Each structure stands twice: as C-alpha cells, then as structure tokens.
Amino acid sequence: MQIVRIMLWVMVTAIAVILIILNWGDPQPVRIFPGPGGDSKLFEWPIGFIGLFFFLLGFLPMWGYHRFEKWRLHRRIRNLEESTARIVAAKVERTLSFAPVDSAPSEPANPVDPEQ
Q1: Considering the entire predicted model, what is its pTM?
Q2: How far is CA 90 from CA 26, 29, 82, 83, 96, in A?
Q3: Which residues of the chain fall below pLDDT 50?
Q4: How far is the C-alpha of 107 from the C-alpha of 87, rounded, in Å?
C-alpha cells in the first residue's frame, strides 16, 4: 500500500511541476487586500507561482494539523503502553510473592494401591 501512495504523490507532483513550468512565463495581475476607496496595488505574478502559493497556503495548515494529531496520538499510545506495563509488572510481582518456595510435587494423601 505504501508503494501505491508514493506513486500517487510522484504523479501529482510531476503534473504540478509540468503545469508550473508551462505557465511560468505568463504574468497575471493579482490584487491583494484592496484598500479603502477601492484603490489597491496590483502585483504581476506568473500563473505557476500563483498556483504554487495558494496550494501551499491551503496545504501547510492541514499538514501542521496532521503532524500535531500524529504527535498527540503517539503520546497517548506511549502513555497507555507504560501504564499497561506497570499494571502487568504489579500483577507479576503480586503473583510471585504468593508462589510456594518449594516447587517439588507433593505426594497424594491417599495413594491408590494397585493390588486391591
């Protein structure tokens, strides 16, 4: 499954790079934050840069959220594993404290006489 995901990302990246390269030479006017009274400054940016900029503008917050959630879940798993290990260690210690010292098998109280 990992190889499919890698191939998909390679294809998406290749398509994005090709589109950016093909459209890099066509500058387009971009109006950012129009000021009061409708006057605003126009920037001449290549279409490829505009696409890359807005892709990153949408991608980076989601990537940061994903990394935070992954960190949080790994921390929870680690805490649960540590608490489980403490519980198991306590049960093993309690079981060993009640174990008999001599582990040799004892003889039955009424042996069966084979001659009867």
Answers
A1: 0.53
A2: 70, 70, 12, 11, 10
A3: none
A4: 36
